[in-house]
């Protein structure tokens, strides 16, 4: 927090609710004063004083100077190193590759130190960073290049081979040996002769375009979520405001020389990895220890070696940490926060995390690519007491309301409906897709497709997805509700519930569960029947001892699983 230590912050009682503290920080004359501003015809809550573009926000990282920022194997880069190389790369893009304001530049690589350097360089050069899933096939890359119109790509060696078929594509290769071709340049070569901390003289402002992030569908063509500089800078400022409120409440280490350390196991091409993990860390001075791939024992080793204080991943990762017998082999005492996002965490897992790591606070976040990851967060005792909630809409920039999907009418507290989010941090639109934009954004509100409700205290609960509601003979069944019961069984490691077609009732409940010991289908059905009405008991449960398949973002491959087991269901009925 060294970049913000000179702020004149008022003292507060440690028992003050954090949203009240944020209210103090955002009053007129305070460091994070907010105001109302009309943007593209919609009135938003905005920070009155924030950097006009991401390029200026990147310079805030220098407040952490020579502290370590990126750790990968034996490589260590400081905040100063990272900003220096990013500025040099930005110069190279403009001077040597002809990138002009508004040009799209594709970015496709695994988590390496070069990833944030490339991203920062692209944006500071005036380009639009086209963030691509590193696991895309050549066919998907071809589609993404055609959709975005990118003419320059920054990749690692493995991905470079997938870009080689693109006509007129200039490829800059970071990490690994670069393929020998006239259109391929090593990233290290591009920095030669460039001056550190000198940014290209391109005019950038709040409403200029910063990035296209493709939504992580398991198959088919995703939508390109288009964000402005204002949206991403506002997101970073909102997180700093949250961090300062926690500091004022005495919930952060008061030692001015203390540096928090986060273990990174989520990809930077996922919105959680890009913003809450990577660039919020850069803003508040948190060190990042990067994993090549997820492995629970390697995670324990790095926590002990690097003194990791914070971990955020998909819920499956924190569950594996809490359930692993390997915990006793390592000193994990530095770990104080265990976050999660990208999927729902079963309530039983919250209890297990707290039991396995009694000195660490479990946490959860709810957000989407379209909201640049931010909607609601919940942690510590608030989360333990409300394990099925995702927290209150995040102040000061996030506004949430629950609406009837059929009428659009706002619903009262306690009544479930579609979760709609209005915020200056939301994306502006879907790239080249006005029809999808019009369906998802109405009068400034993003319609998430998630079903949830707000309780009387303002806590948000996500109870289902509109597309995953199972309608059995006219009865609506929440797939998440059935999943929660199955998750609570000690033999079950993971579960997915989905609909099965039925000629008589329309749909039936089906499930596939990953188990850690032998158990029968009948026993699992009996467990559900103990807790839920008979019509909610799965008609068929498939049991596997293997982990459920996931997509590149770390989420369960819901589409692939449904197709596989619906196929088995149809074959059995034939």
Question: What features would you describe in this structure?
Answer:
The structure is a single chain. The protein has 574 residues and is an alpha/beta fold. It is 31% helix and 25% strand. The strands form 6 sheets. Strands 4-3-13-12-14-15-16-17-18 form a 9-stranded mixed beta sheet, sandwiched between helices. Strands 9-8-7-5-6-10-11-21 form an 8-stranded mixed beta sheet. It starts with 17 loop residues before the first helix and ends with a helix. The model has no long low-confidence stretch (mean pLDDT 93).
Estimated structural class? alpha/beta
Oligomeric state as shown: single chain
Ends apart, CA distance between termini: 63 Å
- Total DSSP helices: 17
How many β-strands, per DSSP?
29
Shape: globular
Helix content: 25-40%
CA gyration radius, whole angstroms? 24 Å
- Residue-averaged pLDDT: 93
Topology:
Blueprint: H1 18-25, E1 34-39, E2 42-47, H2 54-60, E3 68-72, E4 75-78, H3 79-95, E5 104-108, H4 114-124, E6 128-131, H5 138-148, E7 152-155, H6 157-163, E8 170-173, E9 184-186, H7 187-190, E10 209-214, E11 224-228, H8 229-248, E12 261-264, H9 271-284, E13 287-290, H10 296-306, E14 310-313, H11 315-323, E15 337-340, H12 347-356, E16 361-366, E17 376-379, H13 380-385, E18 392-393, E19 399-403, E20 417-422, E21 429-430, H14 434-440, E22 441-442, E23 445-454, E24 460-465, E25 470-472, E26 475-477, H15 479-487, E27 492-502, E28 506-515, H16 521-531, E29 540-544, H17 558-573
Parallel strand pairs: 3-13, 5-6, 5-7, 6-10, 7-8, 8-9, 12-13, 12-14, 14-15, 15-16, 28-29
Antiparallel strand pairs: 1-2, 3-4, 10-11, 11-21, 16-17, 17-18, 19-20, 20-23, 22-23, 23-24, 25-26, 27-28
């Amino acid at each position: 927090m060294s970049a913000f230590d000179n702020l004149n912050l008022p003292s507060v009682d440690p028992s003050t609710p954090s949203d009240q503290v944020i209210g103090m920080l955002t009053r007129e004359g305070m460091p994070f004063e907010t105001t109302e501003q009309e943007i593209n015809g919609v009135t938003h809550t905005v920070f009155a004083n924030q950097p006009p573009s991401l390029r200026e926000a990147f310079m805030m990282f220098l407040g952490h100077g020579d502290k370590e920022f990126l750790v990968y194997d034996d490589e260590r880069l400081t905040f100063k190193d990272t900003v220096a190389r990013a500025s040099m790369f930005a110069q190279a893009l403009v001077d040597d590759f002809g990138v002009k304001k508004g040009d799209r530049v594709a970015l496709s690589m695994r988590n390496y130190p070069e990833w944030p350097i490339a991203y920062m360089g692209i944006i500071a050069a005036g380009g639009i960073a086209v963030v691509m899933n590193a696991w895309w096939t050549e066919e998907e890359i071809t589609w993404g290049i055609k959709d975005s119109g990118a003419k320059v790509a920054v990749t690692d060696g493995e991905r470079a081979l997938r870009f080689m078929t693109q006509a007129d594509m200039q490829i800059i290769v970071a990490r690994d040996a670069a393929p020998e071709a006239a259109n391929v340049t090593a990233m290290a070569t591009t920095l030669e002769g460039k001056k550190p901390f000198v940014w290209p003289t391109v005019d950038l402002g709040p409403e200029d375009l910063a990035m296209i992030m493709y939504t992580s569908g398991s198959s088919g063509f995703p939508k390109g979520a288009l964000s402005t500089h204002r949206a991403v800078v506002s997101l970073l400022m909102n997180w700093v405001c949250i961090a300062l409120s926690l500091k004022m409440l005495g919930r952060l280490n008061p030692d001015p020389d203390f540096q928090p350390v986060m273990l990174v196991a989520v990809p930077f091409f996922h919105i959680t990895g890009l913003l809450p993990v990577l660039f919020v860390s850069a803003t508040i001075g948190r060190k990042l220890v990067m994993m090549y791939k997820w492995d629970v024992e390697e995670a324990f080793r790095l926590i002990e070696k690097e003194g990791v204080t914070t971990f955020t991943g998909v819920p499956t990762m924190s569950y594996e940490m809490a359930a692993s017998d390997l915990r006793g082999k390592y000193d994990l005492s530095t770990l104080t926060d265990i976050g999660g996002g990208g999927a729902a965490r079963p309530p039983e897992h919250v209890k297990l995390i707290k039991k396995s790591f009694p000195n660490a606070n479990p946490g959860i976040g709810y957000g989407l690519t379209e909201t640049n990851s931010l909607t609601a967060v919940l942690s510590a005792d608030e989360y333990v007491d409300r394990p099925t909630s995702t927290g209150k809409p995040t102040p000061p920039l996030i506004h949430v309301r629950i609406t009837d999907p059929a009428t659009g009418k706002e619903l009262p507290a306690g009544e479930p409906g579609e979760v709609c989010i209005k915020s200056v941090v939301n994306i502006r639109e879907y790239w080249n897709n006005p029809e999808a934009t019009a369906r998802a954004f109405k009068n400034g509100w993003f319609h998430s497709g998630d079903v949830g409700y707000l309780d009387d205290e303002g806590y948000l609960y996500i109870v289902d997805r509109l597309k995953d509601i199972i309608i059995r003979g006219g009865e609506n069944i929440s797939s998440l509700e059935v999943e929660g019961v199955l998750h609570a069984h000690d033999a079950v490691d993971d579960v997915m519930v989905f609909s099965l077609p039925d000629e008589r009732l329309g749909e039936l409940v089906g499930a596939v569960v990953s188990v850690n010991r032998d158990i029968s289908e009948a026993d699992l059905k009996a467990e559900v029947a103990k807790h839920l009405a008979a019509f909610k008991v799965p008609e068929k449960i498939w049991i596997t001892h293997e982990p459920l398949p996931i997509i590149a973002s770390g989420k369960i491959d819901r589409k692939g699983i449904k197709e596989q087991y619906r196929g088995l269901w149809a074959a059995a009925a034939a």
